[in-house]
Automatic annotation (TrEMBL):
Cyclic nucleotide-binding domain residues: 15-134
Lineage of the species this protein comes from: Bacteria, Bacillati, Cyanobacteriota, Cyanophyceae, Oscillatoriophycideae
Regions that span the bilayer: 425-444, 464-485, 512-531, 537-558, 667-684, 704-725, 745-765, 794-818, 830-848
4Fe-4S ferredoxin-type domain mapped to chain residues: 622-652
Protein name (Swiss-Prot/TrEMBL): Sigma 54-interacting transcriptional regulator
Organism, as annotated: Floridaenema fluviatile BLCC-F154
Length: 850
């Protein structure tokens, strides 16, 4: 730009245009060009000006550091003059000035500018008057700002405490929503449970917006007057906070506590961005409405439809229980913050402690988590490691009364993760031993006194598996020979005929699978009784082969263990009795949801971390989603696959799931009644003698009819008892007018489960204690040898009767307790079912013990 053009530009674009032509020419003659890159600090406040700057092109921003008063904040555009006042009056620089973009400037050194002022006094005269007027205006503005700050100070929010901590998709979405809410002046509703630091999110919105230099105030809606005079002011009187706030941000905390009279006014404010001062209708010629320039933020813990629908941005803050992936980052942040405040070294948190926190639902959300971390640090001064013990309150109801045996006994974890369990046991022993047993059942003598396989099946297997249910649940299924042959058949069929196995028809299987295994079990019971399977070896072998064939057939059709989960009659019985077990396999839901992305315990996959390569759960069960023991065979596939040590083998109160997380099913109740009826079925000769009927059980049809009656007896007794309960409840409601919701028969029937297990165990104790100890001579007799003189260990009949009686008595006691726990109703209300339990026990006593 040439010399004449400079003079014209100064005259038209700057405040120097008031000077004479000679003065302008003198100024234009000493101008020097400078280029300042973007984001460069041009001037430091409180420094001596080095000269006069004139902005030719670009954008500059000026402000005072650590000064919240917006009067100091200015934006400088082309034509702006910098340091004119300071050079004329000998002052220090008033603002720090930063280039927002690359800027072209003209510069006059301070010495040359002083020479110009001395040579042309009109420069000083022209601007002294202008600066005096600006000073008066600035003083008035400062007075207003001081009064404004005094009024707003009790409500000011000075900063955001922290950003959104975490890397989960919830945290990322929250950050995105906050960023969107900062882009305009639209109202924002932040909704969520207590303890989520929603006010901090509101502060993030304000201080991340273009209005961050304006004040932000917070009002608690529960303390507002019904008239709203604090907000809207009074006509003819003091202005309200909205007027003083100007273009700042108003945060209405706990909007759900807003007085009812104020709800329409706030709704109108959100809808029209205008408000009416209180009492305006009483003042003549008053303006009816005032425009609101502030941004409105609201915080709520419950919905308020008349307000919610008017907010432009709705941010729903997820509770901490669904953001388990962020707990690790939150804990690290809180520990760093607290340790810095206390001046101590930050400790590390153990994996087990973190898993305990992730397993907790945190009803108090972030506030509760911060409190737990602070207490843990206070409890462990000087420690370098925070263990799970210092987080003792972070425990869910599902974790109450549980002891993780894998932590208590590390050798148990090592064994269950080793190749021995259960693969080597199954393929090295069970596979061949089962074949030998079946062959002996077919080829050896056909009675229990001369066939050790028959003795093993009826006198050893049945008592031991029944005794094992309260301790190890469905453990037998992990080494069951039926599914070993099923798995081998599946692998061979895929090798011979490569194909994709069918996926499970889950909906149909859930609906009808239980009834299929119930029907199959009923047929097995009748076959066992009518054809004397207990003492007929080849028929027992046929029974074993029948179940094995089912496993093999369905394994060639469907993937994994479809037969084992839905159709196997032995598996159905095992799953039912496993509900009473004092052990359970579960996973920490918090850890699974926070850290796991592959679900290898469920789907299978390659080795990851300490997790081993597996094909996934054979029953398609996720350990974190298990509500009872029915669908877990304790194969430990999930334990081997999990890279996060989430899987637990817990010791717990026996059967606790039946009154906590259990879901009843009608087909399970039908199987339960069948198993109880099966005990009466096995004792038909005793019942026949006790009743004095003298029926000829060698004839098929009378035997069949008597068998069906025995199977139906428990159903009849329990239905009568339930009808009595419903009648009792109806009578009490009619008499007292206090409504009591009766439990369904399906729910209450699980109260009989200890009696069913005890009755079956009492029945098989006769074989277990009377014949199992003869296994050595029977083994020799199997091969035609004389076993006389070999050790025999059998109990005296009186001892057997005593143990049978004790078993029945305790089973009745546990059934009564369990019924009370399930129903959560008075003993008097449930007395008919308790009486039915005792009646069934008396009947069992008469045919088993006596």
């Amino acid at each position: 730009m040439g010399y004449p053009e400079r003079v014209v530009w100064l005259e038209e674009r700057t405040e120097l245009g008031v000077l004479s032509e000679n003065a302008l020419a003198a100024v234009a003659e000493v101008l020097e060009e400078k280029v300042v890159p973007a984001q460069t600090r041009l001037v430091q406040e409180n420094s001596t000006p080095d000269g006069l700057y004139i902005l030719k092109q670009g954008r500059l921003e000026g402000d005072r550091i650590n000064q919240n008063n917006s009067v100091w904040a200015i934006s400088l555009l082309p034509g702006a003059i910098i340091h004119l006042q300071e050079l004329l009056f000998g002052q220090l620089a008033q603002r720090t000035i930063i280039a927002l973009s690359e800027c072209d400037l003209w510069f006059i050194p301070a010495v040359k500018f002083q020479e110009l002022v001395a040579a042309y006094p009109e420069i000083s005269q022209a601007f002294t008057q202008k600066l005096a007027m600006e000073l008066v205006q600035l003083s008035s503005q400062l007075t207003y700002q001081q009064e404004r700050q005094t009024i707003l100070r009790p409500y000011l929010v000075t900063k955001a405490k922290r950003g959104v901590v975490g890397k989960s998709r919830y945290a990322e979405r929250l950050r995105q929503q906050i960023k969107q809410a900062t882009n305009d002046m639209g109202s924002v509703l932040i909704f969520g449970e207590p303890g989520l630091e929603k006010d901090n999110l509101a502060a993030l919105i304000h201080f991340g917006s273009a209005q961050r230099r304006e004040p932000m105030i917070k009002l608690d809606c529960s303390t507002l007057q019904a008239s709203g005079v604090e907000l809207f002011g009074r006509a003819g009187g003091k202005p309200g906070l909205l007027e003083w706030l100007g273009t700042g941000t108003l945060l209405l905390n706990n909007i759900q506590e807003l007085p009812e009279e104020l709800v329409p006014k706030i709704a109108h404010l959100l809808k029209s961005k205008t408000f009416t001062p209180v009492g305006v209708q009483e003042v003549e010629n008053a303006s009816l409405e005032i425009e609101c320039q502030a941004k409105i933020l609201m915080i709520s813990e419950r919905t308020l439809p008349s307000i919610d629908r008017l907010a432009k941005h709705l941010i729903k803050v997820p509770p901490l229980r669904v953001r388990k992936a962020d707990i690790s980052d939150q804990v690290e942040y809180y520990m760093r913050l607290l340790c810095r405040a206390k001046g101590i070294a930050k400790p590390q948190i153990t994996d087990e402690a973190l898993r305990r926190l992730q397993a907790y639902d945190f009803p108090g959300n972030l506030r509760e988590l911060e409190s737990l971390v602070e207490r843990a640090i206070v409890q462990s001064p000087g420690t370098q490691l925070l263990t799970e013990e210092v987080f003792w309150s972070a425990k869910t109801k599902k974790k109450e009364f549980r002891v993780n045996l894998l932590n208590a006994y590390p050798w148990l974890r090592r064994f269950l993760r080793s190749p021995w369990w259960p693969d080597r046991i199954n393929y090295w022993f069970t596979f061949s031993f089962f074949a030998v047993v079946v062959a002996i059942l077919f080829l050896a003598p056909q009675n229990r006194q001369e066939n050790f396989a028959l003795n093993l099946f009826w006198a050893w297997w049945w008592p031991l598996i029944l005794i094992g249910f309260p301790f190890v649940g469905r453990l037998w299924c992990a080494v069951c020979p039926f599914m070993i042959y099923g798995e081998i058949t599946q692998k061979l069929s895929l090798w011979l005929w490569p194909r994709q196995l069918k996926r499970w028809p889950r909906q149909s299987a859930e609906k009808w699978g239980g009834w299929f295994l119930f029907g199959l079990f009923a047929l097995i019971f009748l076959w066992e009784e009518l054809w004397n399977l207990e003492n007929t070896a080849y028929l027992s072998a046929c029974l074993l082969l029948l179940i094995t064939a089912g496993a093999m057939i369905f394994s060639t059709i469907f993937e994994r263990r479809f037969w084992c989960r839905y159709l196997c009659p032995i598996g159905g019985m095992n799953g039912l009795f496993a509900k009473l077990s004092m052990t359970e396999l579960r996973a920490q839901q918090g850890t699974c949801s926070a850290e796991c992305t592959t679900y290898q315990c469920y789907k299978g996959g390659p080795q990851k971390g300490e997790g081993l390569a597996t094909n996934g759960c054979p029953l398609y069960s996720h350990p974190a989603q298990l509500e009872d023991n029915k669908d877990c065979v304790l194969c430990m596939t999930c334990l081997k696959a999990c890279p996060h040590r989430s899987v637990e083998l817990n010791l717990r109160p026996p059967g606790i799931e039946l009154w906590t997380t259990h879901t009843p099913h009608d087909y399970e109740v039908a199987l339960l009644m069948l198993l109880l009826g099966g005990v009466f079925l096995h004792r038909l000769p005793e019942i026949n003698a006790w009743l004095g009927w003298n029926l000829d059980l060698t004839e098929f049809w009378p035997h069949l009819g008597f068998s069906l009656a025995a199977l139906l007896l428990p159903v009849l007794v329990t239905f009568v008892a339930y009808g009595w309960i419903r009648l009792t409840i109806w009578w009490n409601v009619t008499r007292t007018k206090n409504f009591i919701k009766p439990r369904s028969f399906v729910e209450l029937a699980y109260g009989y489960l200890p009696l069913v297990l005890g009755a079956n165990l009492a029945h098989y104790l006769r074989l277990g204690l009377g014949e199992a100890g003869r296994i050595l001579p029977v083994s020799l007799a199997t091969f035609g040898l004389n076993g006389e003189g070999l050790p025999i260990v059998v109990a005296h009949p009186a001892v057997i009767a005593f143990l049978q009686g004790v078993t029945l008595i305790f089973s009745v006691l546990f059934s009564v307790i369990l019924t009370q726990k399930i129903a959560r109703q008075s003993f008097r209300c449930l007395f008919p079912q308790h009486l039915a339990t005792i009646a069934l026990c008396v009947g069992l006593w008469m045919i088993i013990v006596k």
